[in-house]
UniProtKB/TrEMBL annotation:
SUPFAM superfamilies from the UniProt entry: Cytochrome c (SSF46626), Soluble quinoprotein glucose dehydrogenase (SSF50952)
Organism: Dyella choica
Keywords, ordered alphabetically: Heme, Iron, Metal-binding, Signal
Signal sequence segment: 1-29
Name this protein carries in UniProt: C-type cytochrome
InterPro entries the UniProt entry points to: 6-blade_b-propeller_TolB-like, Beta-prop_PDH, Cyt_c-like_dom, Cyt_c-like_dom_sf, Quinoprot_gluc/sorb_DH_b-prop
Matches recorded under Pfam families: Cytochrome_CBB3, TrAA12
Domain Cytochrome c: 52-130
UniProt-listed PROSITE patterns: CYTC
Keyword Signal found: yes
């Protein structure tokens, strides 16, 4: 009997202790969390347990929280853990209040600068942290991805590790030998955008849907009077948007021209406040329409300016020199890496061409550029820049895409060479005389990113460090085992007019945790109010990125 009494006593004590702990946890949850007001605990998370919100919250956590609280909320030193303890015992409303208010005296900043939706997404993600148990799952939780392939070796990356503000720099010394990995076939599986998911921008920026329901929105340009011109390549038309309402969407929309053949590049001539023509790059020709400021419809038929080779890499971007004497036209290759010496279809391709404004005087301005999908002229000094889709088939980390200033008469390697003196093994021994002439680009990007368009930021709406920088739209990979790209990047130039080789993620979140893709950035322009407009032909939308302050 005494023995049974002892056992009963021990069991009773254990049960009593468990009950006390449970009561203590309940009592803590009922108490104010960091002096949160009484009403905070009852506020419900509108994105609670939504997979898309948790994914977005994971990316935001990795950007803003992980450096202090640990990769999966494990805490460090005197910084509290988030995967257990008070953060898991209080309501989501209390967590949201504390993230918003912060406690500067204790080292916790206020994150009120993040949009309300993003703060709720972080809260939704935090509540999933106790479920993370294995190292692979921890990595997946940090990146917001359910893909558990090994992480890439820096400086190379993939979508799981893309987050606003992360800086990257790839040098020629980082390049692997050809065929270091197999050549992947990993085309994006496109899905509709989940309702709770938006692109993710740095702190202080707000993203909203500007326009939707489009047909392959590609190049977007701002006219001198502030109207926004859009090439809808799928429907063969040019659309105009005018004004931005209080809700961040266009005040007016009109169709400027129809019946075009995969229109892409758009340029206004002459430059300055009173253009007379709108130039359009069809896939097989440059044409122009008579135009005056404020026209919402072309005032006359298209005039043919110059024939171009069609097919293959079909995008034809346009830009004028600052003195308006030269029209630059980008023409990509017909193939991945066919030799122009033996392939007639490749002649006069993989070049940036130059014409007079009337289409005469054609010449090759720069050569060996596989697919210069985007070109732009620096408004400060007149330097031509391009963003380039490099070749495929040599492995996950070859050959990098790039952004570079363009030298007149310069040779950039395609198809025989790449990135300086590296010979493509598929053309071994060919054109040795060109090896030392291959120009190394200014900014080396992730291989297979499909960098499509670039734009200079000259407005004064964003913080001062952005002025004069480049933004580029990365359409996303198909020739890489784990996706990369699917983002907008920023190339800081530090008010020097030159790039140092670094770039940073700016707008991310277009890929879901399981690797399916809902959005593919294409082109960027600066709206009259200083916000950025980004076309996305994955969701057939335009996104607006506004700076709302920290």
């Amino acid at each position: 009997m005494a023995k049974h009494s002892f056992l009963w006593s021990a069991t009773s004590r254990a049960l009593a202790l468990a009950a006390c702990l449970a009561l203590a946890a309940t009592a803590y949850a009922a108490e104010s969390f960091h002096d949160a007001p009484a009403g905070a605990s009852s506020v419900l998370n509108p994105y609670r347990a939504q997979a898309g919100a948790i994914h977005a919250g994971g990316q935001l956590y990795a950007t803003y929280c992980a450096s202090c609280h640990g990769t999966v909320g494990q805490g460090s030193g005197n910084i509290p853990a988030l995967r257990q303890g008070p953060a898991q015992q209080v309501t989501e409303g209390s967590l949201f209040w504390f993230i918003t208010q912060g406690a500067v005296a204790n080292g916790m900043p206020s994150w009120a600068s993040l949009p309300e939706q993003q703060r709720w997404q972080i809260v939704a993600y935090l509540k999933t942290l106790p479920e993370v148990k294995t190292a692979a799952a921890e990595a997946a939780a940090v990146t917001g991805s359910t893909i558990t392939t090994p992480p890439p070796t820096p400086p190379f990356t993939d979508f799981r590790y893309e987050a606003p503000g992360r800086s990257r720099k790839i040098t020629l010394n980082d390049l692997p030998p050809p065929y270091a990995t197999h050549s992947a076939g990993n085309a994006p599986q496109m899905v509709p955008r989940p309702a709770s998911v938006l692109p993710i921008a740095p702190a202080g920026f707000k993203v909203n849907l500007f326009a939707q329901g489009l047909d392959t929105p590609r190049v977007i340009r701002t006219a001198p009077n502030g109207d926004i011109f859009l090439a809808e390549s799928g429907s063969g038309q040019i659309r105009i948007y005018r004004g931005i309402g209080a809700d961040g969407t266009p005040a007016q929309s009109a169709v400027f021209a129809t019946g075009l053949k995969q229109p892409y590049g758009i340029a206004f001539y002459p430059q300055g406040p009173h253009p007379q023509w709108v130039y359009v790059g069809n896939t097989d020709a440059v044409i122009r329409f008579p135009y005056r400021n404020g026209d919402l419809k072309a005032r006359g038929p298209a005039e043919h300016i110059a024939d171009l080779p069609g097919g293959g890499h079909w995008t034809r971007d346009l830009a004028f020199s600052l003195d308006d004497k030269t029209l630059f036209v980008a023409v990509g290759s017909a193939s991945n890496v066919d030799d122009p010496d033996t392939t007639p279809a490749e002649r006069e391709r993989a070049n940036i061409l130059a014409f007079k404004p009337d289409g005469s005087g054609k010449r090759v301005y720069a050569a060996g550029i596989r697919n210069p999908s985007g070109i732009a002229v620096d408004p400060q000094n007149g330097q031509l820049w391009t963003t380039v889709n490099e070749r495929d088939g040599l492995g996950d980390n070859l050959v990098p895409d790039y952004i570079t200033s363009v030298r007149e008469g310069g040779f950039y390697g395609w198809p025989w060479w790449y990135m300086g003196g590296h010979q493509d093994p598929r053309h071994q021994g060919k054109h040795p005389e060109l090896k030392d002439k291959v120009i190394t680009p200014d900014v080396v990007l992730q291989p297979h990113n499909a960098s499509l368009q670039i734009s200079f930021y000259e407005a004064r709406h964003f913080p001062g460090e952005y002025q004069g920088d480049l933004f580029a739209a990365e359409h996303g990979s198909w020739n890489k085992a784990t996706r990369a790209g699917y983002e907008v990047i920023r190339i800081p130039r530090h008010h020097t007019g030159k790039a140092s080789g670094e770039y940073e993620d700016f707008l991310t979140g277009f890929v879901l945790p399981d690797g399916r893709v809902w959005g593919r950035p294409v082109s960027i322009t600066t709206a009259p109010d200083g916000s950025l407009l980004v076309t996305d032909d994955g969701s057939n939308s335009i996104w607006r990125v506004d700076y709302v302050g920290k």
